[in-house]
Design a protein that fits this description.
This protein is an alpha+beta fold and 399 residues long. It folds into three domains: 47-65 and 211-390, Efflux pump adaptor protein, beta barrel domain (Elongation Factor Tu (Ef-tu), domain 3, Beta Barrel), CATH 2.40.30.170; 78-100 and 178-204, OB fold (Dihydrolipoamide Acetyltransferase, E2P), CATH 2.40.50.100; 102-176, Orthogonal Bundle (Helix Hairpins). The protein is built from four helices and 21 strands. The chain has helices at 2-32, 103-136, 143-176, 223-235; strands at residues 42-48, 52-72, 78-83, 90-91, 96-100, 178-180, 185-187, 197-198, 207-222, 247-250, 262-266, 276-283, 295-311, 315-317, 323-328, 334-339, 343-345, 348-351, 360-364, 375-382, 388-390. Strands 2, 4, 7, 9, 10, 11, 12, 13, 17 and 18 form a ten-stranded antiparallel beta sheet that branches. It is elongated, with a radius of gyration of 45 Å.
Length: 399
Amino acid sequence: MTGRKLALFLLLPVLLAACSDSGDQKSAGGAANGGAPQKPPQAVSVVVMKKAERPITAILPGRAVAFQTAEIRPRVTGAIKEIAFKEGSEVKAGDILYQIEDNTYAAAFAQAQATLSKAQVSIPSAQANLNRYERLVNSGATQIEYENAKVTLLQAQADVEQAKAALQSAEIDLDLTKIRAPFDGVTTISAVSIGNIVTANQTTALTTLRRLDPIYIDLIDSSTNLLDLRAAMASGRLSGDPRKADIRLKLEDGTNYPLTGKLDMSEMAVSETTGTYQIRALFDNPDDIILPGMYVRASITVGNENGYLIPQRAATRNARGELSAKFVGADNKVETRTFTVSKSSGNNWLVTDGITDGDRLIVDGFQWISDGAPVQPVEATVNEQGFAVEKPKVDEAKP
């Protein structure tokens, strides 16, 4: 019994090793025969391409400029007697801004009135004297006396006209002591205080008046874009008149200005240093939201063109600036397409070549997949912000 137990004890490790080798071989055989699970294709959101007429937009930088600007300066000399406006407030055309001490101008006006009255008194006497010599010119009065009477009357009339002009000048100077707003606008900080002496037509402005409603937006565009636009309109590819297009603004904080503007004028010259030209747009600004000097970005719809839209979030550009995007081929594998010509259309790029109706554009998840990789396309839509939104699934079993 002892010998049998010893033999069994010695054979046990050999049997265990044989079982282990048999299990390893089965495992290896299963892997070789493809029994291990494979990674499923990655799901990607796609948009089905369809050609249609789309708006062509241009995004241009610009600055706000006051519709009217006037530097207020005195036209007569004197001491500031009163400042009749609140700095930074709105004033109406004709409102008094400054009152200059007017006592000397009032005295000059009164003196001019007296001089006119004195000159006017001499006219009746000179006229009566001329009439008398006219009756006596052939019966005792000489021709010389008649001519002298005529000259006296003409001189008296001239003195009256001169006195009237002096009175008008004195009245103007007296009125100019009241410095008025030339138009509706907003004032700036006053450069003088009560008691300061100001002089006629001095170089330093007392304040600046700006009209902010409406307001100008000065936009800058390259001459290259101008030539492209003209060529597209001449060829008939672009429909619509850019001069009548609505212009929309995005303010410095990223918010959209609620009102649309219109093109006011275009500079018919290109800058020799920057190669750009200026476009001026006009916007209503009833709440003074836009202030002179503000930086804005304007979106102008210059026309419409037939093509395909590629969301900006679904595309990249290579070192040469060419647009590229990824599509799902007929075999559900990824392929990259490059487009040499593309135009801006809102939050999208518009292309006219290299795409056909029904092509599937990858709009989400394309950053982590390479060409030739198998994918599982999931149809989606793109919202106004350019984000992919998966289409809701429809249960065909339900009516």
